[in-house]
Fold this sequence. Notes:
Elements: H1 2-30, H2 34-40, H3 43-51, H4 54-57, H5 61-64, H6 114-117, H7 121-129, H8 139-142, H9 166-172, H10 189-193, H11 197-205, H12 215-218, H13 230-233, H14 239-244, H15 249-252
Amino acid sequence: MKQYGKFYRGILPIFFFSILLLSSSAAAESTLSVKDCNKCHEVQPREIDTAGAAHESQINCLDCHTGHRPMSENNIPACSQCHEGSEHYSLNNCTSCHNPHQPLNVVLTGELKAECLTCHTEQNEQMLANPSQHGEMACNFCHADKHGVIPACTECHEPHSAEMVQTDCAVCHAAHQPTVLEYPDTTPNLLCAACHETAYGQLLATNTKHKAVGCVECHADKHKTVPQCSDCHGTPHAAGIHAKFPECGSCHNTAHDLNNLKND
């Protein structure tokens, strides 16, 4: 009996101390303030201060972490607790891209496409309407590592000529529909010459007024637009000549090489 008495005298203080500690933890949890978070958590408050966005300006730690361990078994909330109303918010594993303490610093890992297109619907529509190799790739193959990164086309593609630089690519090509070539009326002939060397050389060699005309004045707005000569010239010859030769090219060769008249 003396042996058991010693045991109880040893264990009872530990038991009562544990009860006191748990009671103190519960009491402390019920009175936690945001200032208390900084006492243990150094990294997260610093992240929020530097790039917390709305998580810094509109809510505080206790709005998300409504309890603390061990009294709260899981005090990490689901993002859907606050974020809802779009397809993007229904995705699983939000933290694979987002750090909740820096939510707009999006880091991209793995091969992502479906996830990106829940927000970037316009780009998806362009790729679906105009199939190309770009549409077969993961979005972060080009937009690598970090959200918002826009690579230079020349990282993958050789420019059409040695003189062309990255800014020239976007004059004609849109990355999500690269096969649709559209260009402004300020596009210089030299950009067209990068692909159309023969036509450009003929224009340089001619002594006709076409030499001074910009490529995009005739081939307006969209690639492969070929106008009718009559759009500018009307019917300059006698009616009988136009009746006999309805195609201007029957006599005048091509618009880039008007010097070589045909004698048929």
